[in-house]
Design goal:
The complex is a heterodimer of chains A (289) and B (397). Helix content of chain A is 74%, strand content 2%. With 289 residues, chain A is mostly helical. Chain A has one domain (2-287): ABC transporter involved in vitamin B12 uptake, BtuC. In chain A, a hairpin with a 2-residue loop joins strand 1 (128-130) and strand 2 (133-135). In chain A, helix 1 packs antiparallel against helix 8 (183-209) and helix 5 runs antiparallel to helix 8. Chain B is α/β, with parallel strands linked by helices and 397 residues long. Chain B folds into two domains: 39-159 and 307-378, Response regulator (Rossmann fold, 3-Layer(aba) Sandwich), CATH 3.40.50; 162-288, Response regulator (Rossmann fold), CATH 3.40.50.2300. Chain B contains twelve helices and 14 strands. Chain B has helices spanning 2-28, 58-77, 97-109, 122-135, 162-175, 194-203, 223-230, 245-255, 272-277, 304-318, 324-343, 347-355; strands at 45-51, 86-92, 115-118, 139-141, 155-157, 180-186, 208-215, 236-240, 262-264, 285-288, 360-361, 366-367, 383-388, 391-394. In chain B, the strands form four sheets. Chain B has a five-stranded parallel β-sheet with strand order 2-1-3-4-5, sandwiched between helices. The relative contact order of chain B is 0.12. Classes of the chains: A mainly alpha (289), B alpha/beta (397). The interface between A and B is medium-sized, with 31 and 31 residues.
């Protein structure tokens, strides 16, 4: 039982990273119908950036703040320089474009930070043991980041007028424009959110999983699987899906074989796409455009 | 739309034909000089290297790349070998087997190299082996698994054999009265066969292997493996992998409170281990070469002079101290260039010269190769090191 709970804790913390990335992916998909392959690279970029700033002598919170803001700006810049330039942006085109952006970002990170993985110092806090299950304080930070940042984005999109306006600009672009919502502004805000949550995932996970230039693609794909579980539109379903994915991966590694761990996500992806393309969303037609 | 396509068509066709021409040229080089017709005995000496510069083996490949570049520069500054310049061609295999095979094929067919160094890890090295054996190019791997050179004709290696490393670990375990060990191993070539060797070597020492777990070198979470190890019946645990994964595994091991003594392999003989494991590294015992404990060696240690010089050169050039992997590359270069100096670049002569290497003092040990022993190091090449306060210290057994 202890082992089972231990694997669950590990799965939840890993899943929280996938969840943040899934939130970022959905943030841009709902507004722009863009599947942003570079989403995972935001995480590594923020991780590596904050590590450099800490090495340069800045206190951890300051370093993290600068990294979060910079990556958010980078994401906006990518939107302005790449995404916004394309006239007839289809989802397929967006995948190809952002795959290019991802490759570029990875090359830049490789040049700046080199090929070796680096670690951000752990956030303050004490590791604890509950009934034989040990929990790292960093894992609590990761889950906390999901609750605060992921939950914040969810509430913003679903409850605020701004958030609703963002979704409206995707679902009814012409009508949205008529009532005064600028598609360009909506797109920028969506990419800023995607950059911020991606960067958050990167800094909270770096102390445990390390940051390495090439790590973003796999992370982003796992986030994408979670987003597909949310039908690419539902934040709630995607977050639940991401946590489930993390837990299942952990059980497979613990009870079957660790080599199968990375295959789980893609197996789930195939199954979902064949059997239930709307993912875990309960009323698919109500939300799907 | 049509016009755009036509406009693109011409440059595309030109590019394609240039590409074809280039690869065609490359292919026509194949076999041109390597047939031993003497043409390659003049002009620059070409040494190729295939290293794990990016990907999971980066902690190994990067310092190896640094070392080879530095040594090639030094050698050419001193006038090369017999007045011939040494041209070093380094290729990145991206830590993959097919990357290593591709790079090796390019080095043989396009660059017509006289000697190949690499790869950094066992898997890619094994992928290179059939290619260099078929093309008869002397090759010196810097990876560890004995399978790389087992029965080989053209392949050598400079890292200490996994067999002697495990002997040292199990000797230490026996002296402490351990009778059961558990193994957490790298799932790739480096960890292949380790469980069998432990079972075999353990038999004569009264030690049994009670559990085996494995991990991918790209893994970041080790909770599953360590949870299983926590439930295993063992007196000590052997973690067998390279950094950063073996370091992350160590951190998970301590964090999950398994609490048994840990042995690691020579795959963690670098400072990156401490970066990955953090304070969890303290207390780990690992057999490794003398490089990382150079400042604690006796003054009359036969390797001290060579090691000190290498550390001084490397630190001056790159601002950080070299890892054991840098040392493996140094040794490969040393063995290779000494043999070229003695016998030139004619393949069979060069291979025989490498096999004739005797008492050559390197970084990882003192090498004596023979036609049957393409590894060249004995158990004497290893010391036991203890991780203490973020560095390796000489451990008195």
């Amino acid at each position: 039982m202890t082992d089972f709970l231990q694997l669950t804790v590990a799965g939840l913390s890993q899943g929280s990273v996938y969840a943040l990335l899934a939130v970022g992916l959905i943030a841009t998909y709902t507004v722009r119908h863009v599947v942003n392959i570079a989403q995972g690279d935001y995480a590594t970029l923020a991780g590596l950036g904050s590590i450099s700033l800490v090495t340069a002598g800045l206190p951890l919170p300051v370093a993290i703040l600068i990294a979060l803001v910079s990556v958010t700006l980078a994401s906006v810049l990518i939107e302005r320089l790449v995404i916004a330039r394309v006239k007839n942006l289809t989802t397929l085109v967006s995948i190809i474009l952002t795959l290019g952006v991802s490759t570029l970002l990875q090359a830049i990170m490789l040049l700046i930070w080199g090929a070796e993985g680096r670690r951000l110092p752990a956030f303050p806090g004490n590791d604890l043991t509950l009934g034989g299950v040990s929990i790292r304080s960093q894992e609590l930070w990761m889950l906390g980041a999901l609750v605060v940042v992921g939950g914040g984005v969810l509430l913003f999109y679903e409850k605020t007028r701004w958030g609703k306006a963002l979704r409206a600009s995707a679902e009814q672009p012409v009508a949205a424009r008529i009532v005064g919502i600028s598609p360009a502004v909506a797109s920028v805000i969506a990419f800023a959110i995607a950059g911020f949550v991606g960067a958050t995932a990167g800094v909270v996970s770096s102390p445990i999983y390390l940051s390495i230039w090439s790590g973003g693609l796999l992370l982003g794909l796992k986030g994408f699987v979670a987003a597909v579980l949310g039908g690419l539109v539902s934040f709630r379903a995607a977050i639940v899906g991401a946590l489930l994915l993390g837990i299942i991966e952990s059980y497979v590694a613990g009870y079957v074989a660790s080599g199968w761990k990375d295959a789980v996500a893609f197996f789930i992806l195939i199954i979902v796409l064949i059997i239930r393309p709307a993912g875990l969303v309960l009323r698919p037609n109500a939300v799907r455009v | 739309m049509h016009r755009v396509q036509r406009r693109l068509l011409v440059p595309a066709a030109v590019a394609a034909s240039i590409a074809l021409a280039l690869t065609g040229c490359g292919a026509s080089n194949f076999g041109g000089d390597s047939g031993g017709d003497g043409a390659s005995e003049e002009g620059p000496i070409k040494i190729g290297a295939v290293l794990d510069i990016t990907g999971v083996g980066a902690n190994l490949g990067v310092p190896e790349q640094n070392t080879l570049n530095m040594l090639a520069e030094q050698l050419n500054a001193d006038g090369g070998i017999d007045g011939r310049e040494v041209e070093l061609i380094i290729k990145d295999n991206q830590s993959t087997e097919d990357g290593a095979a591709k790079a090796t094929t390019q080095l043989i067919e396009n660059d017509d190299v006289d000697l190949i160094i690499g790869s950094s890890r066992t898997g890619p090295s094994l992928a290179m082996r059939p290619l260099v054996e078929a093309a008869q190019v002397p090759t010196i791997s810097v990876a560890a698994n004995a399978a790389i050179v087992d029965g080989s004709e053209w392949v050598f290696k400079t890292a200490q054999n996994d067999l002697v490393v495990l002997e040292r670990i199990l000797d230490d375990a026996e002296s402490k009265g351990y009778t059961k060990v558990a193994l957490v191993r790298d799932a790739t070539g480096f960890g292949e066969g380790i469980a069998d060797i432990i079972t075999e070597l353990g038999e004569e020492r009264g030690i049994t292997l009670t559990a085996t777990e494995s991990f991918e070198p790209s893994a970041t979470d080790f909770t599953a493996q360590m949870t299983n190890i926590r439930g295993a019946d063992a007196d000590a645990v052997i973690i067998w992998g390279i950094t950063p994964s073996a370091g992350l595994a160590q951190a998970a091991y301590v964090q999950l409170g398994v609490g048994k003594p840990v042995y690691q392999s020579h795959g963690v003989a670098n400072d990156a281990f401490f970066e990955a494991a953090g304070p969890a590294a303290d207390g780990v015992i690992a057999p490794m070469g003398r490089l990382l404990v150079a400042d604690q060696l006796a003054d009359d240690d036969p390797q001290k002079e060579v090691i000190d010089q290498f550390i001084a050169d490397y630190s001056a050039e790159f601002g950080s101290s070299p890892s054991s992997f840098a040392g493996h590359a140094f040794d490969a270069w040393l063995v290779g260039t000494q043999a070229i100096e003695a016998a030139g670049t004619e393949p069979e002569g060069l291979r025989d010269a490498i096999e004739a290497t005797t008492d050559l003092v390197g970084i990882s040990g003192i090498f004596t190769m023979t036609p049957d022993n393409h590894s060249g190091l004995t158990a004497d090449a290893l010391i036991m090191a203890l991780a203490e306060g973020g560095r390796w210290t000489l451990y008195e057994e």
